[in-house]
Each structure stands twice: as C-alpha cells, then as structure tokens.
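Feature request, filed as a ticket because there's no other form

It would be nice if the structure record came with a short human-readable summary line next to the tokens. Right now we just get the raw output. Example of a typical job, pasted below so the devs can see what we mean:
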Amino acid sequence: MYLILGIIAFLQIYPLVWLVFFSLKDNQEVFNASPFALPSNPKWENYVTVWTEGNISVYFFNSVWITLVAVVLTVLSASLVTFAITRMNWKYSKFVLGLFMIGIMIPVHSALIPLFKMFININLIDHPLSIILTYTAFNLPLTIMILLGFYYTLPREIEEAAVMDGCSVHRIFFQITLPLTMPVISTTVIINMIYNWNEFVFINTFISSDKYKTLTVGIQNFIGQYMTEWGAIGATLVISILPILIVFFFLSNKIVEGIASGAVKG
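Raw output as currently delivered:
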C-alpha cells in the first residue's frame, strides 16, 4: 500500500519539479537537450527578467487583490443567502434556492457573449469590476451548496435564545451564526481562491489593459511572433503556482473538515 501511494505521490509531484527545472533553462537547452534533463547552467535570471521586464509584478498584485475581493464578496453573499433560506420562513425560499442551484449547470463559455454585451452596455469592459462580479456570480451556487449542509446542522436553540434576549437579525447573523460557520467558511474560501487565482477565460475576454491583467494571461507576453521565451514562461508559471500551492499545503485539511462537517444533516 505504501509503495502504491508513493508511486502516486511521485506522479503528482514530479510535474511541479519538472516545471521548476524547465524554468531554469534557456531556449537552446529546451530544444536541444532531453526534456527530462537537469539544467546544465541554471538560468535564475529568468525569474528576474519576468519580474522586472515582463510586468509580472503588476500581474501578481492584480491576481492577489482581485482574488481577495471576489472571495470576500462571494463568501459573504453566500452566507447571507444561506442564512435567509435555512433560518427564515418565507414563501419562495425553496424556489430561490433552486434558481441558485441552476447556476451550477450553466457552462462558463455559454455566458461569455451575453456577459460581454452586458458589460459593454454598462461600460465595464476592461475594468476589474467586471471580473469581480463575474467571479462572484459563478462561484455563488457552489458556495451556497457547501454552506447549506452545515447550516442545517446548526442548532436553532442558540438563535432562539438570542431572539429572546432582544437581538436583531443582523446581530444574530454577524455575532452568532457567522462565527459558528467558520470551519465551512474556510473551506469555501480555499475553493473560491483556487478558482479565482487560476481563472483565464474571463480575464482574457473582458480585460485588455496590462494594468488590470492577472498572472494567468500575463504568460502571453513571452509568446512572440518569431520567438518564444520558454524559460521565462516556465518561471512565470512557477511564480503563479507558488502562492496557491503554499496556501493549499497549509490549509488542505480545512477542505476535508469543512465538507465533512456539513455533509450529514443533524
């Protein structure tokens, strides 16, 4: 069993190690040497080049703040929706939940043209708000679905006691319910962050200015008509992978814990 798990782990990790070695090669070594060969003379300057000359520092900052803003909006909105559906009695709650769940079935590519036309009409093309709104909308259904199971397990007695003490709905949500749901919220934060950080289609469609581009589309700067800097592309990929890899390495257990805690209705 350990041998099988070791082989699987090697197959999973080796592409990342290979990418690091690839980023330390120049074009001549990429094409003339074996793809599995170690770099004979590591080109650490590839990282300096992409950070200083390739505008990667700007793309990296854009990826960070766009991802964070979209994650906060998505998780907060999904928490409010889930609270309203599971904790409040109103006529069309199940219908509204169904509308949100339909969003999971909408393919990303089928929405590109309608979204593009809408953002043109409201002057949001080539504006980061178009990306943030799109990320929030597409991540809401999955986030609500993950939160839903956990909210059903929360005891209502705590909230009922708060109502008896004179708490408003807003205080109940922000001071009682929201802190209790932090385990599953951490799960949704990680899932949303991974999606937003790696997303390419919407950024490439809605954003054309370099000042708003993210790392996923910044790689195209090193693909020229007559020459492509493969080592620089590898360095850019390593830089784009590292933050999300570090976060996932330290918080991966939260994903399992959060999903498992809301998987069974109490």
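Something like this underneath would help us a lot:
The radius of gyration is 23 Å.
Confidence is low (pLDDT under 50) at residues 262-266.
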